[in-house]
Amino acid sequence: MARHELRRYRQRGLPRTARDLVELAGDVRGATVLEVGGGLGTLALELLAAGATRVTNVELSGGYEEAAAELLAERGLSGRVERRVADFAADAETIPRHDIVLLHRVVCCYPDAERLVAAAAARTARALLLTYPRERALTRAGVRAVNAWLRLRRCGFRTFVHPFAAIAAAAQAEGLAEETRRREGPLWENAAFTRGTTLAGVSASSYRESEPQERASERAADATAEPRRRRGEDDVTIDDEDQEGRSS
């Protein structure tokens, strides 16, 4: 997995949702960055290139460490990145506050979204940036089959589509304010929460609505998926590749 991701990053760079999250971060010159569940830590590397001073990466799996060390050595950044193998939600109090906190496609992999987001928000000095699955019947129905496949393979890993209201409430309870939401294709959405500031170039009302034709298509697809969803469970998995990655 780690080697595959390293090859993909070297060949293609960040996936679209991660590129847009970097853009959403705005001016990061002089900022410290905490990347939660970042795997290789490629998103934070892009922020270092944009002017961030230091990165802490907290990853649950130790399987990324060798490939991550190789990538850091290539970029000459080993001294500016601290990597920890830990359960962030359990160990968050041992981590100092950082200006920017990133959770790119991490909330969907954790059963207790409120606990995870609250821990991340408490470690945020300036901005919390997240990517999570959109709440759509089609998303729930389409990815439920993958959870069933994981169960058949006796794999304990599951991912979830958590309500945005719960994510937002957890961030706001830690003193952050919702600044923006951006749809990222049919599956994903990015959001930014800030503490006493705004992100450069980001409007507070920048939630991007779909065009009427797209909304009509989504409603039709969701209506088809809804009967299937009612026969399933509420937790679903979601593919780690975005639409761009699958089509290339």
Topology pattern, helix = H, strand = E: HHEHEHEHEHEHHEEHH
**CATH architecture descriptor name:** 3-Layer(aba) Sandwich
What percent strand?
Answer: 15-25%
Please count the helical segments. Answer: 10
Main sheet strand line-up? 3-2-1-4-5-7-6
Helix content range: 40-55%
Output mean pLDDT. Answer: 83
CATH homology superfamily: Vaccinia Virus protein VP39
Number of strands: 7
Structural class of the helix and strand makeup? alpha/beta
The residue ranges in which pLDDT falls below 50 over 5 or more consecutive positions are 201-212, 227-248
Topology:
Blueprint: H1 2-12, H2 16-25, E1 32-36, H3 42-49, E2 54-59, H4 65-75, E3 81-85, H5 88-91, E4 98-104, H6 113-122, E5 124-133, H7 137-152, H8 164-173, E6 177-184, E7 188-194, H9 212-230, H10 243-247
Short description:
With 248 residues, the protein is an alpha/beta fold. The chain has one domain (2-136, 154-209): Rossmann fold, CATH 3.40.50. It contains ten helices and seven strands.
Structure description:
- With 248 residues, the chain is an alpha/beta fold.
- The chain is built from ten helices and seven strands.
- The protein has a seven-stranded mixed beta sheet, with helices on both faces.
- The two termini are 19 Å apart.
- Helix 2 crosses helix 3 and helix 7 packs across helix 9.
- Helix content is 42%, strand content 19%.
- The radius of gyration is 18 Å and the shape is globular.
- The chain has one domain: Vaccinia Virus protein VP39 (Rossmann fold).
- The C terminus is likely disordered.
